[in-house]
Amino acid sequence: xxxxxxxxxxxxxxxxxxxxTIGERLYAESIEFIREIVNNAYDADAxxxxxxxxxxxxxxxxxxxxxxxxxxxxxxxxxxxxxxxASRSPVHHRDRIGQFGIGKFATLSxxxxxxxxxxxxxxxxxxxxxxQDWEASGDTWNLPMEVLPPEAHEEDGTTVVLMxxxxxxxxxxxxxxxxxxxxxxxxxxxxxxxxxxxxxRSLSGHRIPVLDGTSFGPVTGEIVIQSExxxxxxxxxxxxxxxxATIKRELFGMETWGKAMARVRGEIHADFLPITSDRSGxxxxxxxxxxxxxxxxxxxxxxxxxxxxxxxKKEKRVVSRALKETLQRLYRALALNPDFSPFxxxxxxxxGQGVGGAAKQAADKTGKDGEEVQPxxxxxxxxxxxxxxxxxxxxxxxxxxxxxxxxxxxxxxxxDSFGEDGPEVFSEETVIxxxxxxxxxxxxxxxxxxxxxxxxxxxxxxxxxxxxxRNPRQAFERQSKLLRDAFIERx
Length: 491
Prior knowledge:
The chain has helices at residues 16-25, 32-43, 69-75, 82-85, 131-136, 171-181, 287-336, 439-444, 448-467, 472-487; strands spanning 48-53, 57-62, 111-120, 123-130, 145-147, 157-165, 190-193, 196-198, 206-214, 217-225, 238-242, 245-250, 264-269, 400-404, 411-416, 425-428, 431-435.
């Protein structure tokens, strides 16, 4: 542009109606305004915030530092950089949550009018924002402020009252929003709803602490793997917090985990993440979020491994309990049918110990008439035969092993993974192997009763074949008798 050319000035303006439109449409849910007002109280060093909900009004009162005349001017300065420049509060040195100064207008999505009453030291005032009056006032951008006598507001702090509600609010919904979106765990800060304190959510389960860092800042928090009974399908994902307020729940790839996804909860703090103006999400195209995403990919890999380990431990406990119950039943069945035992007879006088104990044969030294029974002559001494050791099969760390001691030696039972195409059950010497990967085993193991019945079927099959492997028909008849005696209820 030539220096000699005259220039004109064009003012940059914004229509007043757009301010209200921004407030009404900025947030996906009108209930978000509660979070905004409570977080403003937190930024103002409040220690107590009282929220009261009625059919006609919503009132949020805090005991923070309040605002003087200059503070009120700044409060209604849209887009003020004040909280960015003064990022820590003066009293409790809190990291201030607010950034854009537009959050107060979220109230306009829930009501027709709101009042702000505040006091700081000797100054007290009330400002009324009536949406209809403000829109009708043309180019006038001012709001009416009523200066109050000091005694009208006895302590420092701010009260926001919403009137002319456009919808009703359930206290439980307000409580859920406060729990999720406000820093309830911060020291010297508590929120009450209709007189009852709101406590932060508490999770129980296997805890995985997170303490790592990126070039933009630290990432901290805790992920909890809950029990299956505590898992819920609602509110899936991990809360990602910026300055102690939840911005969004993220799945971090858990959508491919199936039902196990519902067991994983927790919260991650990353104050360096850039957020959208409505505080409902992150700027995912930013370098900060990409670094955060890479870190969380490693964290979730650890969570997945821990989840698999916990699932395996639980499964092992279930299998161990079912196998123990099954062997106890088989021990009783074999005691009723000693001729079916391939392990030798039970000791006389019932001195056997069953599962986990040795059933030893007691020596009876007297005959029917009380005469002493002469012991049989000892066999001639010769070279001792080496006992055959059972083959050693390589097992997985998840194998469940139990031994039933019966008669002279008994049997060892192993439940382990041998592949879906592997045999359902097989034996090597005195060891019976049950394949937990077999489709039939998987189908029957979901319920405890069918689980032990299926184990009993497999074990009695092998025990019967051990007794007389050359006659399968007789072996299966013996199996049927053992199964019946294992599960028949006796007085």
